[in-house]
Amino acid sequence: MKLSVPLIILTFAFVCLGRGEISAQTTFGVRVSSNSTKYSMITHLGKLFRPRGVRVLGVGANVDIEINDHLSFLPEIGLSARGFEANILRKVGDDWVQMEAWQKIKVVEVPLLFKVGNQRNGWSYYALAGPNIAYSLSGSVTTEETVRGALYTIKERVDLKQLPYDRFEACLTLGGGLSLELPGGKIVADMRYNMGLTTLSTDQNDEQVPYGIRSRTIGVNLGYQFYLR
């Protein structure tokens, strides 16, 4: 249900495209992104833990609907991943084991952004802001352990349904970028900061999942907007 309103708005935008009920300056765009997510969380021992972010690639599509010369509405849908890596030292029997862990979770995002900008000599600079709903699809954890000099690598799929993990996340997206006008469209490049507003796990009694999980993502996007008229 949390995802229904953004999807309805996004669907409406695409329906308008098909019926021609939009401004002549409306564009359809595709983009690729490079993102890095920082998590903060509290372990079952009550300690604050901030693992290192992992840089991942993503793809997306959008409709840029012009409202006036300086303001437009930019609904998007994208597929990316979020993840982290950490070095952990734990005791197994009489041995201390050095473990490196990498976690990645595939995420569908639906940003509903407003874009404010100005254009001069074919170049346009703009600022972005708006809500973003993210939904986690699936995840995996890869660990490497060294026990008495021997290296063991294990990769496991994470079933998010079996964990006290909220798959929906409400976020606020802020950013800015540049675009260059071309005969058939325009090249766009921007940087975005995505701040998680909700906590992904609140169960303090489950040792498998830390609680108080919040995300912060910074990403760089490169794309192309096609004129539809």
Distance between the termini: 35 Å
Name of the CATH class? Mainly Beta
**Cα-atom radius of gyration:** 21 Å
Number of domains in the coordinates? 1
**Strand segment tally:** 11
Q: Any idea what the CATH architecture is?
A: Beta Barrel
Structural class: mainly beta
Which residues form runs of ≥5 with pLDDT under 50? 1-6, 17-21
| Element string (H = helix, E = strand) | HEEEEEEEEEEE
Largest sheet: 8 strands, antiparallel, barrel
The proportion of strand residues reads over 45%
User: How confident is the prediction overall: mean pLDDT?
Assistant: 79
Topology:
Elements: H1 4-19, E1 27-42, E2 48-49, E3 52-53, E4 55-66, E5 71-92, E6 95-120, E7 123-147, E8 150-158, E9 168-182, E10 185-196, E11 211-227
Antiparallel strand pairs: 1-2, 1-4, 1-11, 3-5, 4-5, 5-6, 6-7, 7-8, 7-9, 9-10, 10-11
Describe it.
With 229 residues, the chain is mainly β. The chain has one domain: Porin (Beta Barrel). Helices cover 7% and strands 69% of the residues. It contains one helix and eleven strands; from the N terminus they run αβββββββββββ. It has one helix at residues 4-19; strands at residues 27-42, 48-49, 52-53, 55-66, 71-92, 95-120, 123-147, 150-158, 168-182, 185-196, 211-227. Strands 1-4-5-6-7-9-10-11 form an eight-stranded antiparallel β-barrel.
Quick structural summary:
With 229 residues, this protein is mostly beta strands. 7% of the residues lie in helices and 69% in strands. It has one domain (4-47, 55-81, 108-135, 166-227): Porin, CATH 2.40.160.
